[in-house]
Each structure stands twice: as C-alpha cells, then as structure tokens.
Amino acid sequence: MEPRVKIALLGEYGVGKTRIRSRFVEGIFSHDQSCHLWGRFGKKKINFNDSLINIEIWDTAGEERYNSYRFSYLKAVDGLVLVYKVSSRGSYEGISKILGHLIRSDINKPTILVGTKIDLENREVSYQEAQKFAESKGFLFNEICSETNENINESIISLAKRILKIE
Ligand SMILES: Nc1nc2c(ncn2[C@@H]2O[C@H](COP(=O)(O)OP(=O)(O)OP(=O)(O)O)[C@@H](O)[C@H]2O)c(=O)[nH]1
Ligand SMILES: [Mg+2]
Q1: DSSP summary character for residue 39
Q2: Which mutation among 15, 17, 19 tests ligand 1's pocket best, with the greatest number of atoms within 8 A of CB?
Q3: CATH code that applies to domain 4-163
C-alpha cells in the first residue's frame, strides 16, 4: 500500500489557496471567478525516489471568521500549508491569527509557510522576513506562484517528505 498523506491549505480570503490546489492536482491555472466553486478536495499520486505517495489536499475557504469546527476537523490531517500572498502584509499578519487558533485547538502538525503570487509587482513581504518567521516556528518555507507554476510541486513534496520523515 502506498503511503497516503492528507494536507490542508489554510490562509485568509483570496490569498490563492484554491489556485494552489488546482495547479497541484489538475495542473491548471485560471483567473475565472467560478473557480472558488471547485471541489474542496483533490488527490494526486507523486513519484518520489521510485515509490508512489498519495497526496490528498484539502482546500478550505478563507472566511473572515474562523470557527472551531474548521479547526477540529484539521485534527484528521497530517500536515498544513499556511498561505499568504507576498503582495499583502495583511494576509501575512493573518498567519499569526491562524496560528493562534491552531494553538488553542491543540493542533500541531508538520507545516510549510508559503508566500504566493510572486509574479505581482507590489510586494509587501520580503522573502527574508517570512523565512525567518517560518524558521522560528520550525516550519518549512517557500515562495510560490500558481500563475507560473513556480515551486508548487516542490513545496507540497517537501511537506510530504517531512510528514513521512523521508530525507
Ligand atoms: N497574479 C496571480 N494571481 C493569483 C495567483 N494565485 C491566485 N491568484 C488570483 O487570486 C484570486 C484568489 O485566488 P483563489 O485561489 O480563489 O484564493 P482562495 O484563497 O482560494 O480564496 P477563498 O477561497 O475565497 O478564501 C483569483 O483571482 C486568482 O486568479 C498567482 O500566483 N498570481
Ligand atoms: Mg478558495
């Protein structure tokens, strides 16, 4: 049986979570507004060192207010992708709020922090600042772009490896 890892995407409204999922699972990107209605769950098998890993990726909706239900179902996942957009300091500050909810819900999983939309010119969060923050929390870190498909697979795979304790 191939190993299976379940990961969830978390982040504020509109940071780009659904586009990460569709890029990773279906290999596509679209600015079409209806995309937020796409399924919240996707699966992909990836080949890693000649063995297959099943990755299940759960997309959550970034409503303004989080409820405890959202966080309790995260107990069933193996790892988390915390998403902010590099063009918005507010979305980066939102990560600390999400971390507060996770701590209060007693959820502590292997985590990668990702800054997305690096194709945009109006950057408000530097690579160095976010990397330092991730390091201080023991998280993996990467900057990604769904539009150009930069670092998406790499980031998800690095999280899967950490979950499965593969190096
Ligand atoms: N330029 C650019 N736009 C992006 C990128 N990723 C997502 N977007 C756009 O950002 C908007 C929001 O993306 P979504 O993936 O729907 O964001 P979300 O986090 O799922 O939003 P909610 O589900 O509402 O919380 C869409 O208009 C996307 O086309 C990117 O890498 N570059
Ligand atoms: Mg979405």
Answers
A1: -
A2: 19
A3: 3.40.50.300
Residue-wise pLDDT tens digits, 63-102: 655 555 667 778 889 999 999 999 999 999 999 999 998 9
**pTM, entire model:** 0.93
Task: Please identify, by atom number, the ligand 1 atom nearest to the C-alpha of residue 63.
Answer: 25
- What per-residue string of b and e applies to 83-96 under the rule 16 or more CB within 10 Å gives b? bbbbbbeebbebbe
Distance 74 CA to ligand 1 centre (A): 22
Cα–chain center distance at 140: 11
Distance 50 CA to ligand 2 centre (A): 32
Q: Could you give the angle at the alpha carbon of 143 between the alpha carbons of 137 and 149, nearest 5°?
A: 140
Integer Cα distance of 35 and 19 in angstroms: 8
